[in-house]
């Protein structure tokens, strides 16, 4: 217990002395994670859509060659960036580009550090999102694509209006998962000198050698950011799911024309010609309430 009290007191002294640096590190981490996740989603959606464009033997040779080439390029990109650590990707991009271009292309200054970090995390995220989007697209019932083609929709119209909206809802959990991973994985950007949350921790312990106490503050900070992100993502998922109940349509001309519509006061069209099937007053009142308030999903 004494050690725990001592740890808490040391953490309090560290926070009092360096709270501004810790908050700046958290801010930089969140900005980088949010921006890189959004850009990575764009990259992933582009790769996922390109990777699922259909072609047949009846298509011309140029189209088939182009689509095969695109799939090979996407596959190489995905395998390379999923199969190597982000810290090594940061080294290769930040130090490798100047090396291979004879210093013509390099990241200079504060903005250069931000640009390099954003490129590295975005490309890494895009590789994971490409497979998530591909899986979301192929998870949609093929009958929906066939139905869209049957009514004359092009492939682009089918993807934008039918497939992608449903695929997006299916991959929302994976997008959230990648965002939470990015909050933590931005810690490897210290290798190129970017000042994020973990880099602040390394700078602070380099002055006072209170490594464990500062690491405890870091753990609490990362846990706070990821828990808040998880909570917000759960709210977004529930929002996209819609309401648990809904009101029924008050008048459907197609159903009425088919003779299956039951008016709450007059019954069905057949009831108007035959008194045997007339609705009782209790049945009519029940139908009025159903049309007014609807029925929840569990009552169907």
TrEMBL record:
GO terms for molecular function: transmembrane transporter activity. It is found in: Cell membrane. The keyword Phosphoprotein does not apply. Residues 26-233 form the ABC transmembrane type-1 domain. Keywords: Amino-acid transport, Cell membrane, Membrane, Transmembrane, Transmembrane helix, Transport. It is a multi-pass membrane protein. Residues 262-300 are annotated as: Disordered. SUPFAM superfamilies: MetI-like. GO terms for cellular component: ATP-binding cassette (ABC) transporter complex. The keyword Transmembrane applies. It comes from the Bacteria. One of its GO terms (biological process) is amino acid transport. InterPro entries: AA_ABC_transptr_permease_3TM, ArtM/GltK/GlnP/TcyL/YhdX-like, MetI-like, MetI-like_sf. Belongs to the binding-protein-dependent transport system permease family. HisMQ subfamily. This is Amino acid ABC transporter permease. It comes from Candidatus Flavonifractor intestinigallinarum.
